[in-house]
Write a structure and sequence with these properties.
The longest helix is centred in the last third of the chain and has 33 residues. A two-stranded parallel sheet has the order 1-2. The chain starts with 17 loop residues before the first helix and ends in a 5-residue tail after the last helix. Helix content is about 60%, strand content about 0%. The N terminus is likely disordered. It has one domain. The chain has about 210 residues and is mainly alpha-helical.
Length: about 210
């Protein structure tokens, strides 16, 4: 790897432990800073816990930039349509990474006894996704707190403080969920999104089929 490429590739140990997955915020924060300076061209590849966590976070990082572009009013409608299609594609990838993370996490956990444990409706992958988005919100709001407009900077600083609290709360909930799962107090199931609007076989607007 060339020296100038290291900043775009924040390192996670390739054999990331299951417990480390449940404490992702340090990696998330470092990755946002690194990718903002030198964004990679593509999401990290692979099926390890480390690569899937990085790929999920990169999907949200990419979506953040696309959502900004989608709100531009100085370009024509075809440009915005192209951005919206990219958003659809990255959202599908994001959901795929959430599901794959849950698969890998489940495979590394002890089997639960539904008679003794309480089912947790939100999966670890879904919480990891929320933490990724919260990390992006905090990073961008903190940057806006350095704007030259004093009133706007103060407003953003106050919002960043609230977001930091929300992020810390959710991080604690994720770690508590991990402890409860290991102790046999909670369990979760693999859930599938099955988004039919991205499947041309099932979306009548794409297939032009008639259900009559």
């Amino acid at each position: 790897m060339k020296p100038d490429e290291t900043s775009s590739r924040p390192e996670l140990h390739p054999e990331l432990s299951l417990s480390a997955v449940f404490e992702p915020c340090e990696f998330y924060d470092r990755a946002i800073g690194d990718w903002s300076r030198s964004p990679p061209a593509e999401a990290p590849a692979g099926d390890t816990l480390a690569s899937l966590l990085a790929a999920l976070h990169f999907s949200n990082f990419t979506l953040w930039g696309l959502e900004d572009q989608a709100r531009r009013t100085d370009v024509n409608d075809s440009a915005i349509a192209g951005v919206k299609r990219s958003i659809d594609a990255w959202n599908q990838r994001r959901n795929d990474f959430i599901e794959r993370l849950d698969e890998r996490i489940l495979a590394g956990l002890p089997a639960a006894d539904p008679e003794l444990a309480e089912q947790h409706s939100e999966t670890p992958g879904q919480i990891l996704d929320r933490l990724s988005i919260l990390s992006l919100k905090v990073w961008h709001m903190a940057r806006n707190a350095r704007l030259k407009n004093p009133a706007l900077a103060a407003e953003c600083a106050a919002k960043a403080t609230v977001l930091e609290t929300q992020k810390a709360d959710l991080s604690r909930c994720l770690k508590r969920l991990y402890r409860d799962i290991l102790a046999g107090r909670r369990y979760f199931k693999q859930y599938r999104q099955y988004k039919t609007y991205n499947d041309p076989r099932l979306n009548p607007a794409l297939s032009q089929r008639s259900d009559s």
